[in-house]
Design goal:
The protein is of the alpha+beta class. It contains 24 helices and 24 strands. InterPro entries: Bact_Chemotaxis_CheA, CheA-like_dim, CheA-like_homodim_sf, CheA-like_P2_sf, CheA_P2-bd, CheW-like_dom_sf, CheW-lke_dom, CheY-binding_CheA.
Length: about 675
């Protein structure tokens, strides 16, 4: 069987299972008495092992198997949980993640995991098992609390249903069903088989489980257990009529063989009340009565789409937006009423389509946030600190292009908060704080932007230390330092190479890498600001655009050329007189609403050929970058519109203060101005 067609699904589902393992391990560490969490981790590990074996990744299979053994011993109360045990399991998950990433990048998924395998084996063999009496009590308690206990392959409830069905004269069968080797739409065939079975009786269990069958996570065969009033021959004949089925083996279930094992359980646990059994999915031979269908997991309403297809769809839609602009221009020039109405209708439809296409590209920030709890846990252990990471708004969505870039800046900010924000337990207790520090990672929508906050309750930023460091590094003069607000002082830590750390640590110094954080966020059309109170904590606020592909701009004219300025950077537009222009420090400025704003003449910056003389009044676009404002001098305002952002390509990517280009409705190319580059 060709496995390549399943590779993408394997990679995505492996990532999901490993993410579940990481998340649940963190939950288990805080709630070690809750063994239901261990079952959740065990199921993910078990599924991953099966998938890896099917795909032929031996190293992945072997390591998962070792981890599964330890988890099985934990859930059976044979191994006690400890911080050291958690460390080893987290290491195993890290190795598994690395192997899956290797496969995703075209590798063979092989990795040297001898050390972590050895540690898992030591844990598995080195701990003495719990006494049989305690184990029996724990097992009985588990059944009473509905954790799963098995008789053969059946849990207590399934076994009871099978036994009482037998007592009422029904047949119990284990049925193995095989599809043809090249069977297509296996999930649909499974559905047809279940439909046949449910008309003849009731399905008690399937292997693999129903949810995996629906996702086609099996080879060509699967097994179901059912109770029915019909014979094995009748059941076999009905299933064989389903297309693509080429093998059916119906075996009567040997309940007597399982009874001995069941007796020991019945001695430990009181029999399930009769009324509970009556609620089970027992069949009836009264055809007039509606058969009760077994409870199935809710079917998924989502499908996986290769991101390349979404990129192609986005490119096609971008061309449609360009043509829509062209039609608007033609309609305006011809002044034809019917054409006006048609173009307006097309504009409404494409606007709805634009919303759908952009939403399809939206990804929850959870995909980025998911890796942080494990990272924070490990850093806390490395730094001998106690830290609780709280995440809010993980469901908040961002465009995939933004998601791809935002991960590293958030890692920098979290590492800095851990290293120089949160104090040691001893320092916190001395300050009257809880010894466990708190970091809040929060995301939320506001308008056309997404905001991400990283707040810690640590030491805060020492303004004097920041100023002294900035002065000693020559970043600013004493005269300038005297005029800075608190927020402006905090923002000095974004200067390249700036750090207040006394010593360089393996983690970070507050400020190390923060210039990279700021540059990355601003390259995405966003901004980052800081607020802090000494000994109370700090807040880093990141503002990001929802999408980078289609943006709203103000179109302006500079001589005979057209330029686009993103609306997200614009405060307002104004008309000023030349007589109002002042000079300060060799810079032309204006007094705008009580603030001194520098004027930037775009015709000079972009060296636009002069074809007409300037008028006595100037058109100015007031733009901002964080707390800084500037006035961009243009020749005229054309209007607001939505444009498609196109890259300038490798040959022109170094063009100063230009972030891209767009094609206008009349076929002209307009360059898009990068306001962040212009403002210093």
């Amino acid at each position: 069987m060709d496995m390549n067609q399943y590779l993408e699904v394997f990679i995505e589902e492996s990532k999901e299972h490993l993410q579940t393992c990481s998340e649940q391990l963190l939950v288990l560490e805080k709630n070690p008495e809750d063994l239901s969490i261990v079952n959740e981790i065990f199921r993910s590990a078990h599924t991953l092992k099966g998938m890896s074996a099917t795909m032929g990744y031996e190293d992945l299979t072997n390591l998962t198997h070792k981890m599964e053994n330890v988890l099985d011993a934990i859930r059976n109360s044979q191994i006690a949980l400890s911080p050291e045990l958690f460390d080893v399991i987290f290491l195993a998950v890290d190795d598994l993640e690395a192997m899956v990433m290797s496969i995703a990048e075209g590798g063979d998924g092989k990795r040297n995991v001898e050390e972590v395998v050895h540690q898992l084996e030591v844990i598995e063999k080195g701990e003495l098992p719990v006494s049989s009496t305690i184990a029996e009590i724990a097992a009985a308690s588990a059944v009473l609390e509905k954790e799963e206990m098995t008789v053969g392959e059946y849990d207590e409830f399934e076994w009871t249903v099978l036994k009482q069905s037998k007592d009422q004269g029904f047949n119990s069968f284990e049925i193995s069903i095989g599809f043809r080797e090249n069977c297509l739409l296996k999930a649909a065939r499974v559905f047809m088989v279940f439909e046949v079975l449910e008309k003849s009786g009731e399905v008690i269990k399937s292997h693999p489980p129903v949810e995996l069958l629906e996702e086609e996570q099996f080879d060509q065969q699967f097994t179901v257990t059912m109770v029915t009033a019909e014979s094995s021959e009748e059941i076999e004949e009905k299933i064989m009529k389903v297309s693509e089925v080429d093998q059916v083996v119906v075996n009567a279930l040997d309940l007597e063989g399982l009874r001995h094992a069941a007796n020991s359980i019945e001695d430990q646990v009181a029999e399930i009340p009769e009324q509970e059994i009556n609620k089970a999915v027992l069949p009836t031979d009264n055809d007039d009565k509606k058969k009760q269908a077994p409870v199935k997991p809710a079917s998924s309403k989502t499908i996986r789409v290769n991101i390349e297809r979404l990129d192609i769809l986005m490119n096609l839609f971008e061309e449609l937006v360009i043509d829509r602009g062209r039609l608007d221009q033609i309609s305006s020039d011809l002044d034809n009423q019917e054409l006006h109405e048609t173009v307006e209708r097309m504009s409404r439809i494409t606007s709805d389509l634009q919303t759908i296409v952009l939403n399809m590209r939206m990804v929850p920030v959870e995909t980025v946030f998911n890796r942080f709890p494990k990272m924070v846990r490990q850093l806390a252990r490395d730094l001998n600190k106690k830290v609780n990471l709280e995440i809010n708004g993980a469901e908040t969505e961002l465009d995939r292009t933004v998601i791809d870039e935002i991960g590293d800046p958030l890692v920098h900010l979290l590492r800095n908060a851990m290293d120089h924000g949160i104090e040691t337990p001893e320092e916190r207790l001395a300050k009257g704080k809880n010894e466990e520090g708190k970091i809040l990672l929060k995301a939320y929508h506001s308008g056309n932007h997404v905001f991400i906050e990283i707040e810690d309750d640590g030491a805060g930023i020492n303004k004097d230390r920041v100023l002294n460091k900035a002065l000693s590094n020559g970043i600013l003069t004493k005269e300038t330092a005297a005029t800075l607000t608190d927020k402006q002082i905090y923002e000095l830590i974004f200067a390249s190479g700036f750090s207040t750390a006394e010593t360089i640590s393996d983690v970070s110094g507050r400020g190390v890498g923060l210039d990279v954080v700021k540059n990355t966020i601003e390259s995405l059309g966003g901004s980052v600001t800081i607020d802090s109170k000494e000994n109370e904590g700090s807040i880093f606020l990141i503002q990001l655009p929802l999408t980078l592909s289609i943006i709203s701009v103000m179109l302006v004219a500079i001589q005979n050329e057209k330029y686009a300025i993103p609306l997200s950077s614009i405060i307002e537009t104004a008309i000023i007189k030349k007589a109002d222009i002042l000079n300060a420090h060799n810079q032309q400025v204006i007094d705008f609403r009580g603030k001194i704003l520098p004027l930037l003449f775009l015709k000079d910056i972009f060296e636009v050929p002069i074809s007409q003389e300037e008028e006595e009044s100037l058109s100015v676009v007031i733009v901002r970058k964080g707390d800084k404002l500037a006035g961009l001098v243009v020749d005229s305002f054309i209007g607001q519109l939505e444009i498609v952002l196109k890259s300038l390509g490798n040959y022109l990517n170094s063009a100063f203060a230009i972030s891209g280009a767009t094609i206008l409705g009349d076929g002209q190319v307009a360059l898009i101005i990068d306001c962040n580059t212009l403002i210093h």
